[in-house]
Amino acid sequence: MGAQDQSVIIVSGMSGGGKSTALNALEDLGYYCIDNLPGAMLPYFEPQIEANPKLYKKVALGIDARSHESSLQVVLDWMTSLRANGLNCKLLFVTAEKPVLIKRFSETRRRHPLTGSDKVLPEAIENERKLLEPLRDQADQVIDSSDTNIHQLRRQVWNFVDRRSSGMTIVLQSFAFKKGVPQDLDFMFDARILPNPFWQEELRSLTGRDQEVISWLEKETGVLKMKQDIGQFMETWLPAFQDAQRSYVTIGVGCTGGRHRSVYLAEKLAAAIGGKHANVLVHHREQGSWSDS
């Protein structure tokens, strides 16, 4: 077994953002998982990985803000070293918006690792975000779990692992404007101007992935025109992002409820872009609530 057959995934991110869920998802895929490993210990772990390729064929390491700032730089240097030695090494960063993190800590009553006698929770969250910013900037993918349940987060982690390893990752994300705009978008398109299948009683309970909704939408010239225009725009500008060595680009398409128009466009754009780019993922942020209406 050569080094190229080994896979190392660093999982970092905001406390309460979903790192433990991400590591559990990787463990289900056969990864040897170690959580809360101090960054300063990584150089001592590298010889073990190289000397035991069968045991450490797939390794996932959880790194959090309890590592000193200098230790976080060690993480980036260590990843560079692994890649130089031919190992497949990726960095996954899991985060969430500040109000969501505060709510999660309040519900679980767990202590944030950076809180203390001189720091309250909101301040600790901001300090952690600044501390981890260098890791986020170098991440192969950032997952925002603010509007994601455990099952959706696990699927996103599995997609991250299973995608083809080379090239830029492009994420098409549908969402509902009434539930807020995702924070991690590179591009955002507003589909609320298009005719809404919601007002057709027979289509209300369906989604933009159902053929009945697809057929109804594609009778509207405005829908086809928007799909074509967005597709041409992305075809023009995605190569520039790739030339700039961006690891990922997130394209958001929103409508009122995140169920019909935005879902249709995200699916169709992903299919079109996928014909020219290897790593294309689709994420429907409101999917967890579809069964509620």
The computed structural class is alpha/beta
User: Architecture of the largest domain in CATH?
Assistant: 3-Layer(aba) Sandwich
Number of contiguous helices: 9
**Quick check: average pLDDT?**
88
Q: Report the radius of gyration as a whole number of Å.
A: 21 Å
CATH topology of the largest domain: Rossmann fold
Task: Supply the CATH superfamily name of the largest domain.
Answer: P-loop containing nucleotide triphosphate hydrolases
The spatial strand order of the largest sheet comes to 2-3-1-4-5
> The biggest beta sheet, please?
5 strands, parallel
What is the H-and-E element order? EHEHEHEHHEHEEHHEHE
Summed up, the domain count is 2
The CATH class of the largest domain turns out to be Alpha Beta
- List segments where confidence is low: pLDDT < 50 over at least 5 consecutive residues: none
The quaternary structure here is: single chain
* Residue fraction in strands: 15-25%
The coarse silhouette is: globular
What fraction, in percent, of the residue positions are helical? 40-55%
Distance between the termini: 51 Å
Q: Give the tally of β-strands.
A: 9
